[in-house]
Write a structure and sequence with these properties.
The protein is mainly beta and 221 residues long. The chain is 6% helix and 70% strand. It contains one helix and 13 strands. Strands 1-4-5-7-8-9-10-13 form an eight-stranded antiparallel barrel. Strand 2 and strand 3 (45-51) form a beta hairpin.
């Protein structure tokens, strides 16, 4: 699917109906990123790639809206829509073939994502609030120099549809500033890579799931 089409659809779905807004804000975040181990079949057998812990950083611009209040009138509930950019990176710890480690093992994963999010805020009357929601968008994935025992397994990139779930807690310091901590799960449709490209290899889909824990700051205008 064309990446511009994916992004346009994601943003349109997120912001449709958000004409009535309560306030514009910016937020930045970062933290620890865990990438589930990667698995794929080759002509020699199944390879498991164990991934080290990594990091994620990002930022978002959003609007507080009354979309939720139209359905559930309450001063304790709020909602917001936002556009988010984030980057995450993890390195390979080891590749294993049939349980045997392929030494040396190299490789790295990184992804740039652009997402449209919808978040629901709970306990809005208090400085301490909770929020949950999710988003959809596009991921630009790079799987770099995946090699084991001196053999280049793959070195490829792809653009895929991405989706995420978010849950967090936020503390309002004053009218403008807040700090927050959150967990987010990011998944995507499987990127496609070419195995053993030097030998005219075959393509495989690689399942990518990341778990991200961190925090950040939000500024309301």
């Amino acid at each position: 699917m064309n990446k511009s089409t994916i992004l346009a659809a994601a943003l349109a779905a997120t912001f449709s109906g958000a004409a009535s807004a309560g306030g514009f804000y910016l937020r930045g975040f970062g933290g620890y990123s865990a990438l589930d181990d990667l698995e794929f079949n080759t002509g020699l057998g199944r390879i498991n790639s164990d991934m080290d812990g990594g990091f994620n950083v990002g930022g978002a611009a959003g609007l507080e809206t009354d979309l939720l209040k139209r359905v559930f009138p309450s001063d304790h509930l709020g909602s917001r829509v936002e556009v988010e950019y984030s980057y995450r990176e993890n390195d390979v710890e080891s590749h294993r073939l049939g349980g045997a480690r392929l030494a040396p093992s190299t490789g790295s994963f990184d992804a740039h994502t652009v997402m449209g999010n919808f978040l629901v805020d709970f306990n809005k009357q208090s400085p301490l609030t909770f929020y949950a929601g999710g988003g959809i968008g596009v991921a630009f994935v790079n799987l770099d120099n995946f090699s084991g025992a001196g053999t280049n397994v793959f070195d490829d990139d792809d653009t895929t549809f991405a989706y995420q779930g978010i849950a967090g807690v936020e503390y309002k310091i004053d009218t403008n500033w807040s700090v927050f901590g959150e967990y987010r799960y990011l998944g995507m449709t499987d990127p496609e890579v070419t195995l053993f490209p030097g030998a005219g290899g075959v393509t495989r889909d690689i399942s990518v799931d990341t778990h991200n824990v961190g925090g950040g700051i939000r500024y309301r205008f």
